[in-house]
Amino acid sequence: MPKTILIVYAHPEPTSLTRRFVSESVKTLEQQGHTVLQSDLYGMGWKATFDESDFPSRINSDRLAFIQESEHAYTTNQQTQDVTTEQHKLLAADAVIFHFPLWWFGMPAILKGWIDRVYAYGFAYGYKGEGNRYRYGDGALKGKRALLSVMVGGPEDDYSPRGINGPLEELLFPITHGMLFFPGMDVLPTHAVYGTGKPSKAIVEKEIAAWRLRLEHLFNESPIPFRPQNDGEYQRNILAEHIAVGMTGLSIHIDN
Amino acid sequence: MPKTILIVYAHPEPTSLTRRFVSESVKTLEQQGHTVLQSDLYGMGWKATFDESDFPSRINSDRLAFIQESEHAYTTNQQTQDVTTEQHKLLAADAVIFHFPLWWFGMPAILKGWIDRVYAYGFAYGYKGEGNRYRYGDGALKGKRALLSVMVGGPEDDYSPRGINGPLEELLFPITHGMLFFPGMDVLPTHAVYGTGKPSKAIVEKEIAAWRLRLEHLFNESPIPFRPQNDGEYQRNILAEHIAVGMTGLSIHIDN
């Protein structure tokens, strides 16, 4: 069954490993008969900074309040064209893949700015104008799949369960849980390539093959079992006492 | 003893709560006799996107490799003026305070872009050209203090130890540990204000008073006890077996 996949990527160098992976994604997915949409953030000259120019027609021209202006622009169809285009791509997609280098344990600013600007009130949060009612497993992007493909300069040990940087998947929790599961997407385990400084040709080929395998299972792999907000495991947004008894931290929000 | 404090902030609206806190910081610190430096990222029109224009004189004009070009630009004094100015401010500061609204569980893109661009190789990482030798408690910014002042739209419960978003301090670990402790700074516990959507005037005054208290103790409060890389608690960048025995996750890197 052919699907539509949106690929969002953030690296300006066509010969970078990030872009090598993007090319592989496009090729592999199209060979499978899928439709691929692309958002080449550097190539598009994506505006990273969320600011007053995102609101050409303000509800309050005296004072810039982002949430109110975002809601107003979204609900009255007065967003900028670049933002609506990305929202339409997200809505058209069955899966979204993000390709980026890990910079300071997170996204490059240009990609964070894609989230900041595209994730309007009424769309990615405040869905149906109902505040936090629909989120974490529910929302406008419910049922779509999301997958991070991350290029990591440092060695894998540094990101291992007791590695000095912290485990990669926990460092990415604000993205996987907070940006992708939040508006409803099913998030697959992150695909990381480590030690990307100067990989040998053989290693690159091995890594590309491993990535191809992830792509082939994009629609049948099990997502990270984040706990949905609205399935009874939370009571007033706090994890119920009988679940993960006595524990705290990010990992309690995963039903392992 | 008068000190120098750098305030980096990311909100374009002068009447926002973020900017109210900035004003309070400037006033309180100057009243104490300190020197205050400011980086008003929106006001400066800070370029958020790290790209080829950051390297006016490339070591390799065929292929853009960020780390190599960053090292080259930094060591040969060929960075852009906006970046060197920020680096000089950081070096001049005894403490750095970041004021920003929490957007999607992290920094606004413009602030992430300040990190991406100012944190050059040789400066914030690869100190002395020695890869990862100096980091996590050691590096160019060693001995300085850092403090996040974060405006959070949602309620405090959602960020509590078992709250659905995850505990705030763990969500911010990539920043506090990964961006501030990494180049050597002592990081104070985050100062958060929750429910910043429409606070009453009384609540704002109460919050400002609480913030003033934090400012007054900026130089005698205890930092988060992140474990330094080079004090013997890590063996090849993995936490030694006898410490936090059998535990994993972000919190093991804090010596509580």
Can you put this structure into words, describing what you see?
Two copies of one chain form a homodimer. With 256 residues, the first copy, chain A, is α/β, with parallel strands linked by helices. Chain A folds into two domains: 4-224, Flavodoxin domain (Rossmann fold, 3-Layer(aba) Sandwich), CATH 3.40.50; 225-256, no CATH class. Chain A is built from eight helices and eight strands. Chain A has helices at residues 17-31, 41-44, 66-75, 81-92, 109-118, 168-171, 173-181, 201-216, and strands at 4-9, 35-40, 95-101, 145-151, 186-187, 191-193, 234-235, 238-239. In chain A, the strands form two sheets. In chain A, strands 1, 2, 3, 4, 5 and 6 form a six-stranded parallel sheet that branches. The first copy, chain A, has a two-stranded antiparallel sheet with strand order 7-8. In chain A, helix 1 runs parallel beside helix 8 (201-216). The interface between A and B is large, with 67 and 67 residues.
The oligomerization state is homodimer
The first-level CATH class of the largest domain in chain A is given as: Alpha Beta
Second CATH tier, the architecture of the largest domain in chain A: 3-Layer(aba) Sandwich
Query: Greatest contact pair?
Result: A-B, 67 and 67 residues
Q: Give the overall shape of chain A, derived from the CA principal axes.
A: globular
What number of domains of chain A?
Answer: 2
Instruction: Give the distance, in angstroms, between the N- and C-terminal Cα atoms of chain A.
Output: 30 Å
CATH names the topology of the largest domain in chain A as Rossmann fold
Helix percent of chain A reads: 25-40%
Radius of gyration of chain A: 19 Å
What is the overall number of helices of chain A? 8
Biggest pleated sheet of chain A: 6 strands, parallel
The total beta strand count of chain A reads 8
Round the mean pLDDT of chain A to the nearest integer and report it.
Answer: 97
How big a fraction of the residues of chain A is strand?
A: 5-15%
What is the name of the CATH superfamily of the largest domain in chain A? Flavodoxin domain
Strand and helix order of chain A:
EHEHHHEHEHHEEHEE
Instruction: Assign the structural class of chain A, choosing from mainly alpha, mainly beta, alpha/beta, alpha+beta, or little secondary structure.
Output: alpha/beta
Low-confidence stretches of chain A: none
Family (chains A, B): Belongs to the NAD(P)H dehydrogenase (quinone) family.
Protein name (chains A, B): NAD(P)H-dependent oxidoreductase
Pfam families (chains A, B): Flavodoxin_2
Domain Flavodoxin-like fold (chains A, B): 3-213
